[in-house]
Amino acid sequence: MGIDVKDGKNLLNQANWNGKTILMLGAARQGQAVIRYAIGKGAHVILNDRKPFDKLTDEWQALRDLPIRWVTGGHPIGLLDEIDAIGVTGGADLRIPILREAASRGIPILNDTQLFLNEVNAVKAPVIGITGSSGKTTTTTLVGRIAKNACETFQAGRKVWLGGNIGNPLLTEVDKIQPADVVILELSSFQLELTTISPQIAAVLNITPNHLDRHGTMEAYTEAKMNILRFQDTSGTVILNRDDAGSWALRQYISGKLISFGMEKPSELTGRPEAALVWLENGVIRRWCGGQVKDLLRVEMIRLRGTHNIFNVMAACAIATAAEFPIDAMQKGVENFAGVHHRLEWVRTFRGADWYNDSIATAPERTLAAIHSFTQPLVLLLGGRDKNLPWETLAAAVRDRARAVVLFGEAGPLIETVLQKEIGPESAITIRRCQELEEAVQAAASLAQAGDVVLLSPGGTSYDAFKDFEERGKAFIEWVLQLK
Length: 484
Known about the structure:
Layout: H1 6-12, E1 21-25, H2 29-40, E2 44-49, H3 57-63, E3 68-72, E4 85-88, H4 97-105, E5 109-111, H5 112-123, E6 127-131, H6 136-153, E7 160-164, E8 182-186, H7 189-192, E9 201-204, H8 212-215, H9 218-230, E10 237-241, H10 245-248, E11 257-261, E12 274-281, E13 284-289, E14 292-298, H11 307-322, H12 327-334, E15 345-350, E16 353-357, H13 364-371, E17 378-383, H14 392-401, E18 402-408, H15 412-423, E19 430-433, H16 437-447, E20 453-459, H17 469-481
Parallel strand pairs: 1-2, 1-4, 2-3, 4-5, 6-8, 6-9, 7-8, 9-10, 10-11, 11-12, 16-20, 17-18, 17-20, 18-19
Antiparallel strand pairs: 12-13, 13-14, 15-16
């Protein structure tokens, strides 16, 4: 959208919010964090949510102790006449009329990520930020495990704070963070879109088509991602993926040091001097740093499925190198890690078929990675809400790897059209379309055979039927466990 956020940055630099009026759009977790922060600073808050009040019972219970004016059921433009700044959640579309009008009036627009980074910068606690089109949650979790091991075993007294796009917003905990602590943030393009502060250590795992329903173009999506490194100075460090064109193209914008990772060791260093290199060689993840080559860990220690997870582990090792965490901490952080919830999560074996929950796969590319993680015949559950992303490459993989496909949700008809075009009328692959995920689970159970993998890896978001991918994954697990 091209919103100018400099006014928001100016507001951050003001020491006192006392007496100002803040309009908060959205009453979910991030909105609640901004509200508590603003009231703690002495501001008046108007909470505005498009949902009617009777659909916000949980939010009301969470905020009933605070002096808030509630305006629900829409976003009236007239509210802008009363306010000094406007807060948005990560899910807020900056193209909606009230935000377009706020931008045209020069009203500062802020989110919890910007507020948090500003506060942590004042404390001078080091921040590690991790973004990418895929692999963010797994890599962030791995780095958190490595950091906790390092701090507990080798750097006693340091506390690790893990948050951002996962867990509860850390803005509510910012007063507890000390200068010696380590902050690790998973950052989405939505959170970065309004950010004018970059973490000291910034990792871009990959940039591939995603969220084009929100950003419109790959250029706008990439611009949002770039904010993770755009505001670094020469003391910062950036971690990039040599094997991903979108990530690797950002090296020209780096102000500080570069650490890169990829499958092969480069035959020669790039134009920008690299502080460290991480690569895979003969089943061992290795690192060049400070003129020395060292073995970090063997691939057999990685319990996670798929080549994409080897990339995630290499990225975590590169980030840990930037943070100066010991190799022992890297190894202990990786070993025995079976993955995050809703990412290739085994649910149960039913009638000889293994069922997996990969609800976190909200783009076709992530479903593609999941498919390549298995060799068994697949019964694949696809659907949800489309993000204006291409499905053709995934359809080709389905043609080659799946025995049956069950479609559900808003995107079901779209995906079916692409699949039928790719697979052709002579294909033996069964395609079944359902309205809801629960119905899709029953259909998959009727199609699955002993030796199959039944895989929920939707390729679309959950917002057509669920609050988020976690709620969708939990519902899927519950319905699978109820199968008899």
